[in-house]
């Protein structure tokens, strides 16, 4: 979706929206750390996030890769910066074709900074000399596909700012140039950072006076440290009001005090801007989360403990799968793996799941088993402990359900999900019996859709869930469970081992809706299902995690590793649903086992 459309929709609804900017880190570890931080920040619902293009195009490939992951794995509407620096038109079109193929619709068109080692911008042969040329090219070649954002400079472009600021003529010329960019096809303006709110408000008024009518989004850069603040304002030739200098000077060597002041200043600036009727804020995060989130919390735009969900899983933003609204529950804790394995489907399930035999899931690759360094370290600490028996294995799962561990080889997420607290005691008991759970949800009968534990879909609706369990167990345990299930007609199950030998009490290719919601003025939404055909695809991944997600944490030949490999070969994966979401008791089947 185009960012301009999201902003217009928010304006029509009277909502204030915010967005975050990031830049490509220099190291692989930095990139993974950024994505972990981004995941946390995106949970608060920004309207979009943007990623910068390296000076001189130095991080072009990395920017393209990060933009793709943001749009398709983090599932946040992504805007990619694109500059003219060292970019002949062939490279520009390569970048645009790449993001278009990845379902990205938003570009921030910039001239760019001077190439490395040079003081002034140099137009590369076969390239463009300014952002206006770039906007015109994008519109001419790609029509209306892209939403195009351009930069606005409340104090004029740094190139025309002298010792005492920009002259009136230079400022007026810069405004006229901005209007030409908008007239050429730009539909949104995001401003350069500023610290004088009066200057920004005057800039907005001046834009309106010359006929610029598109939204103008203020770019807010929280002050995180004193030296960085001086460096950035010096580079951008940004005016620093005397009262800010006076406030910072006594605390400039106290980093925490500087951050606290930066949050206070950012909050007050935003309050003043919002009071004028502007409903959009863009935060330059410098790849840091605390100050940006603190400002938004101070403004009442987010709550740390309350993250709203439009669906039980984060909806995709890729233009080719935005209508997708139903998924198999098996990948609930591994959403990135699911997205990766379903890339390139011609159609994504919308309204109802349908026949999953038609789309072909992507094969398992190393990607499914690679982890960010931080998560890998946590798994090493929590799961690479000596294992002498299956009881030791059971203890790991039990500790996870008790909240003593914050990671699981079977999950990309951090710790237990909020709804698990409803059934964590029952989960602990069955894990202690050797039923090793990797996915679950409690029964829910008409909870309000804004419930902090099970809610989704926004206020005004009601949500429902069938109790669900997914677990590994030994064959003798499975036999006992299957026998007990015969006394519970509302329970349905599928069980399969690594080799594909399966047992079930439901028809082949059956699909069972296990989560649904009822909302004002909408059809019933059923976002998660248990689908037996998809389960047989998922089981390969689930079994593979025993070795490539857990056993691999131990050295070759280690007895713990050999024990895990033995479990992988002998255990069954079981999917269990209690279809009586009103009076059922899924855990009753495990009593006396």
Automatic annotation (TrEMBL):
Chain ranges of the MTHFR SAM-binding regulatory domain: 309-582
The protein, known as: Methylenetetrahydrofolate reductase
GO molecular function, one example? methylenetetrahydrofolate reductase (NADH) activity
Does Flavoprotein count among this protein's keywords?
yes
Q: Which Pfam families match?
A: MTHFR (PF02219), MTHFR_C (PF21895)
Q: What SUPFAM superfamilies does this protein's entry cite?
A: FAD-linked oxidoreductase
TM helices/strands, residue ranges: none
From the UniProt record, give the pathway where this protein acts: One-carbon metabolism; tetrahydrofolate interconversion
Subunit text: Homodimer.
- Note the InterPro entries from the entry: FAD-linked_oxidoreductase-like, Fadh2_euk, Mehydrof_redctse-like, MTHFR_C
Q: Which domain of life is it from?
A: Eukaryota
> Family, per the entry?
Belongs to the methylenetetrahydrofolate reductase family.
Q: Which GO terms describe its biological process?
A: small molecule metabolic process
The cross-references to Gene3D superfamilies, in alphabetical order and at most eight, read: 3.20.20.220
- Keyword annotations for this protein? FAD, Flavoprotein, NAD, Oxidoreductase
| Function, as annotated | The probable reversibility of the MTHFR reaction in plants suggests that they can metabolize the methyl group of 5,10-methylenetetrahydrofolate to serine, sugars and starch.
What's its catalytic activity?
(6S)-5-methyl-5,6,7,8-tetrahydrofolate + NAD(+) = (6R)-5,10-methylene-5,6,7,8-tetrahydrofolate + NADH + H(+)
Species this protein is from: Urochloa decumbens
Cofactors needed by this protein, per the record, are: FAD
């Amino acid at each position: 979706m185009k960012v301009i459309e999201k902003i217009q929709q928010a304006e029509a609804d009277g909502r204030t929206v915010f967005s975050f900017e990031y830049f490509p880190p220099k190291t692989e570890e930095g990139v993974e750390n950024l994505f972990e931080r981004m995941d946390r920040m995106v949970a608060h619902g920004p309207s979009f996030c943007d990623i910068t293009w390296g000076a001189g195009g130095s991080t072009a490939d990395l920017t393209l890769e990060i933009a793709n992951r943001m749009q398709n794995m983090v599932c946040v509407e992504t805007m990619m910066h694109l500059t003219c620096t060292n970019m002949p038109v062939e490279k520009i079109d390569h970048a645009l074709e790449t993001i278009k193929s990845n379902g990205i619709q938003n570009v921030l068109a910039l001239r760019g900074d001077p190439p490395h080692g040079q003081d002034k911008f140099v137009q590369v042969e076969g390239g463009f000399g300014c952002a206006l040329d770039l906007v015109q090219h994008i519109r001419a070649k790609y029509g209306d596909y892209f939403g195009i954002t351009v930069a606005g400079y409340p104090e004029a472009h740094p190139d025309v700012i002298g010792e005492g600021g920009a002259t009136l003529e230079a400022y007026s010329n810069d405004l006229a140039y901005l209007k030409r960019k908008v007239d050429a096809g730009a539909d949104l303006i995001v401003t350069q950072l500023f610290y004088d709110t009066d200057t920004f408000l005057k800039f907005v008024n001046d834009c309106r006076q010359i006929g610029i009518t598109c939204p103008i989004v203020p770019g807010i850069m929280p002050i995180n440290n004193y030296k960085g603040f001086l460096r950035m304002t010096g580079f951008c030739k940004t005016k620093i009001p005397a009262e800010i200098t006076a406030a910072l000077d006594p605390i400039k060597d106290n980093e925490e005090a500087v951050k606290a002041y930066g949050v206070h200043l950012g909050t007050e600036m935003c309050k003043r801007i919002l009071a004028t009727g502007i409903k959009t804020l863009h935060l330059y995060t410098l790849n840091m989360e605390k100050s940006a989130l603190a400002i938004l919390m101070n403004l009442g735009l987010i709550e740390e403990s309350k993250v709203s969900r439009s669906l039980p899983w984060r909806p995709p933003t890729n233009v080719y799968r935005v209508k997708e609204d139903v998924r198999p529950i098996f990948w609930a804790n591994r959403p990135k793996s699911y997205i990766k394995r379903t890339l390139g489907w011609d159609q994504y399930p919308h309204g109802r799941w349908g026949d999953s035999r038609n789309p072909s899931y992507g094969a398992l690759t190393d990607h499914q088993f690679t982890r960010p360094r931080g998560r890998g370290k946590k798994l090493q600490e929590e799961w690479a402990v000596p294992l002498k028996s299956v009881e030791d294995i059971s203890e790991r799962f039990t500790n996870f359900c008790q909240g003593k561990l914050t990671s699981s080889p079977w999950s990309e997420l951090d710790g237990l999900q909020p709804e698990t607290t409803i059934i964590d005691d029952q989960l602990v008991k069955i894990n202690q019996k050797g039923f090793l759970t990797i996915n679950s949800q409690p029964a829910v009968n008409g909870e309000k859709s804004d419930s902090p534990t099970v809610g989704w879909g926004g206020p005004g609706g009601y949500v429902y869930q069938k109790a669900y369990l997914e677990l590994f167990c030994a064959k003798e345990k499975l036999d006992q469970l299957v026998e007990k299930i015969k006394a519970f007609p509302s329970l349905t199950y599928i069980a399969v081992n690594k080799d594909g030998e399966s047992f079930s009490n439901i028809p082949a290719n059956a699909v069972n809706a296990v989560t649904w919601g009822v909302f004002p003025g909408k059809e019933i939404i059923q976002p998660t299902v248990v689908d037996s055909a998809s389960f047989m695809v998922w089981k390969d991944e689930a079994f593979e995690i025993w070795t490539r997600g857990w056993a691999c944490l131990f050295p070759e030949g280690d007895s713990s590793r050999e024990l895990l490999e033995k479990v992988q070969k002998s255990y069954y994966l079981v999917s269990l649903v209690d279809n009586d979401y009103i009076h059922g008791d899924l855990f009753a089947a495990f009593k006396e086992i």
